Amino acid sequence: MLRTLSLFFLFALVPVQAAIYFAHNVSEDSGFINTKKYWNGDSDLCWAATASNMLQWWQNNSSGIPAFVPNGQNESGRTEIYDVFCNNWANTGKGIEIGLRWYLGGKPLNPNNYLYDFKETITEPQNTGRYWEGYITSLGLSSSTWEGDCPFISSKYFTQSDFPLQFGTDLVSFFQNGGVVGLSIAPASGPGHAITCWGIEVDDTTGMAKSLYVTDSDNGQGLEKRDVYYHETDGTLHLGSENGPRINAYDALMLPFYNVPEPSTRQFSPPWRRELPFAAAGADALKASRKHSLLSSFRFFRRRIGIRGE
C-alpha cells in the first residue's frame, strides 16, 4: 500500500510534458520578422505590419524573387513590404487576411471597395498589390481576393465551437506544413490588435496551447513568449495573463514557397501585366499540403475584423 501511494505521489510531481513547434526556419533566436510601426501616420496598421512579417518570411524561404517584388528590409529595419502598405493604404483598421490577399493577388476591380481603404493619392488602386498574382494563378488557384474563400489562407474565428480546443493542434499543423500565422487579439477595452505568431508550445497530452512565440509591432521587444490561458466558463483563450487580450482569430498563410533555379534569365513585368513563371516545386508542395486532414477544407466561417492598433 505504501509503495502504491509513493508511486502515486511520484507521478503527481512529474510536470506536464510539452512540445514546441516553430514556423519553417524559425527559432527563438532567428528566422522571424519583427516589423515595428513608424508611429507616423501608421498607428492603425498593425494588421499591415503583421501581414508584411508573414509575407517577408514567405519570400525569405522562397528563391528567385523577381526584381519588381518588394523584398528585404530598409535602413530602419522595417520590411520593404510594410512600406508598400504604408504608401498605399489609409491609416485604418483592417484584417490580416485582407493584407495578405491584396499583396499576393489584389482586390477585384470594384470601385466601391476602394472608397475608404486607400490613400487619396492612390488614383488607381486596382493597380496596387498583386505582386504574386501570376504565381498563384499558375498553381491553379484563384487570385480573387475579396469575395469567397481563399485556398491558400486558412482562417478561424473564436465564435466557432471548436476554436479553443483545436487552436493548438491547428497551429502545430500549420507550422509543420510550411505555414505561418497572424493573430487577431482583443483586450477587455479599447481597439483590437494584430500580432505575428512564429511558434507554439502545446501540452503533449491534450494538444492545448500553453504558450505562443510572437512579435508585436506596437512594442520594442523581439520575439516574446506569452502564455495562453483557457477560460472554461466561456470557452475563450487569453494571451499573456488570465485577464489578457482574448485571441479572436487566426489567419494562416499556407502558400507553397516560390522556387526558381538561380541565376534566373527571365525578365519580369509588373504582375498586373505579365504572369510570373510557373514553379513546379510549388505545385508539388501544394498537392502534399492538401493531403493533410486539418487543411483539407478551407471553408471556415468568414468574418471581417476591423483591427486597430493602440
- Mean pLDDT, rounded to whole units? 81
**Based on helices, strands and strand pairing, what is the structural class?**
alpha+beta
- Low-confidence region ranges: 1-14, 263-306
What is the general shape?
globular
Task: Give the number of helices.
Answer: 7
Task: Report Rg.
Answer: 20 Å
Strand content: 15-25%
Beta strand count: 8
- Give the helices and strands as they follow along the chain: HEHHHHEHEEEEEEH
How would you portray this structure in words?
- The chain is of the alpha+beta class.
- Strands 1, 2, 3, 4, 5, 6, 7 and 8 form an 8-stranded antiparallel beta sheet that branches.
- The protein has helices at residues 2-12, 46-60, 80-88, 96-104, 133-138, 163-176, 280-290; strands spanning 18-22, 153-157, 180-186, 193-203, 209-215, 224-231, 236-239, 246-253.
- The longest helix is centred in the N-terminal third of the chain and has 15 residues, at 46-60.
- The model is unreliable at 1-14 and 263-306 (pLDDT under 50).
List keywords for this structure.
310 residues; 8-stranded antiparallel beta sheet; 24% helix; alpha+beta
Helix/strand layout:
Layout: H1 2-12, E1 18-22, H2 46-60, H3 80-88, H4 96-104, H5 133-138, E2 153-157, H6 163-176, E3 180-186, E4 193-203, E5 209-215, E6 224-231, E7 236-239, E8 246-253, H7 280-290
Antiparallel strand pairs: 1-4, 2-8, 3-4, 3-8, 4-5, 5-6, 6-7
